[in-house]
Amino acid sequence: MNLPFRVPGAEPTGKGCVDQPVLKERGQREVFCGLTGIVWLHRKIQNAFFLVVGSRTCAHLIQSAAGVMIFAEPRFATAIIDERDLAGLADIDDELDRVVNRLLDRRPDIEMLFLVGSCPSEVIKLDLKRAAQRLSKLHLPRVRVLNYSGSGIETTFTQGEDACLAALVADALPDTKPASLVVVGALSDVVEDQFNRLFSAMGIENVGFLPARKAGAMPAVGPDTRYLLAQPFLNDTARALDELGAKHIPAPFPLGANGTTAWLKAAADVFNVPSERFATATDAGHKRAEKALTAHRETLAGKSIFFFPDSQLELPLARFLYEELGMNLVEVGTPYLHRQHLHQELERLPAGTVLSEGQDVDRQLDRCRDAKPDLIVCGLGLANPLEAEGFSTKWSIELVFTPIQGYDQAGDLAGLFARPLNRQARLGGL
Ligand code: SF4
């Protein structure tokens, strides 16, 4: 299967996959829950604390995923719901108040506390919204208490960030002068700084990032605010921003040289940045990114790739790998397909790409084995068995933990896909 690959910088010519039928599957799924988002969110918002109200399983998940050292002061913990709580023998609201009061007494550095719901707290219908409002009243102005759900019931792992940011938009944005442009989605600080410099070089002022690095520095949002999504999994957050009157700027996602340029251009057009100024601000970065991609094209061009649905980053990644590196897309699975937010990605995918939404894991594994792709992007639970069968895999969760957006990360992003193939080639040559 050798699809022609698009010359870097070329614009899409047709409607790509926009009108293409999607294979919808509603069977067994293999995904992590939304608690996983705490791993990157607690690093991003430096004075926030995430208190999971859940079971020992939740505590194990979050502790092993975040890899805490026991002598560090972590900014997340689990309030365990035990048998007495489940049996209704203890007043769980009182217990939660006690835990929160003790935590806030001991940790004066905390300015924002998230009560994070889980499967157990949802099953026993614990009202964490009411608890957050009660505790906020007690602890404001020092600490604002918010809540969201990280439960694994019918969700996927990136929805934890969406739920967290939607809670921030609904309850915790300041009502001072609204930002002109807000970039939405947790980005690593280095990527945020690079984008800030690019917007500033274009002459776009008063740019905010959601979430901000500090609880007290969240951007204000109002009807004059325009927002750019930096991540494709923020549907609830986008809806909450729309309710405040902010307007979405449609764009592809800032992955790779072309993706980053198109994302920045979408903002530049809205803010009437002259094309010469846009070119002056972005040309050097675009060229740097293209050069970094060249090094990986030899490994990746012509290779086939299969995406299992996991992070919701699958479509933008598939576009990047096809358009900028010449990979062949066997199947692109995503947990949810938000056509509006992904419209420009769909336009850039080659017509005829197999798109699937949701999962029926056994059937999908059969399709994958039949296709024998060179590389498979999937969750941790599928990666080891597939490796044991001789396939090369890439953990999709790594693509959320690693800085991959923007010009200066384009080469690293391509490298994440090239590495397993290079390793396989080396092993094959032994
Ligand atoms: S929230 Fe649910 S899926 Fe996630 S660790 Fe807890 S019990 Fe498991």
Structure write-up:
With about 425 residues, the protein is of the alpha/beta class. It has three domains: about 25-30 and about 285-430, Rossmann fold, CATH 3.40.50; about 35-155, Rossmann fold (3-Layer(aba) Sandwich), CATH 3.40.50.1980; about 180-270, 3-Layer(aba) Sandwich (Rossmann fold), CATH 3.40.50. The chain has helices spanning about 40-45, 55-65, 85, 90-105, 120-125, 130-140, 160-170, 190-200, 235-245, 255-270, 275-300, 315-325, 345-350, 360-370, 380-390, 400, 410-430; strands at about 25, 50-55, 75-80, 110-115, 145-150, 180-185, 205-210, 225-230, 245-250, 305, 330-335, 355-360, 375-380, 395. It has a six-stranded parallel β-sheet with strand order 1-12-11-10-13-14, with helices on both faces. Helix 8 packs antiparallel against helix 11 (about 275-300), helix 10 runs antiparallel to helix 11 and helix 11 (about 275-300) runs parallel beside helix 17. Mean pLDDT is about 90; it is low at about 1-10. It binds iron/sulfur cluster.
CATH architecture of the largest domain: 3-Layer(aba) Sandwich
Q: How far is it from the N-terminal to the C-terminal residue, by CA?
A: 27 Å
Shape: globular
Give the number of domains. 3
Question: What are the distinct ligands in this entry?
Answer: iron/sulfur cluster
Q: Detail the poorly predicted runs.
A: 1-11
The DSSP helix count reads: 17
Topology:
Elements: E1 23-26, H1 38-44, E2 48-54, H2 56-66, E3 76-80, H3 83-86, H4 92-106, E4 112-117, H5 119-123, H6 128-139, E5 144-149, H7 159-171, E6 181-184, H8 189-202, E7 207-210, E8 226-229, H9 235-243, E9 247-248, H10 256-270, H11 275-300, E10 304-307, H12 314-323, E11 328-334, H13 343-348, E12 354-359, H14 361-371, E13 375-378, H15 380-388, E14 393-395, H16 398-401, H17 410-428
Parallel strand pairs: 1-12, 2-3, 2-4, 4-5, 6-7, 6-8, 8-9, 10-11, 10-13, 11-12, 13-14
Helix pairs in contact: 7-9, 8-11, 10-11, 11-17
The chain binds iron/sulfur cluster (SF4).
Iron/sulfur cluster (SF4) binds at residues 33, 35, 54-55, 57-58, 61, 118-119, 150-152.
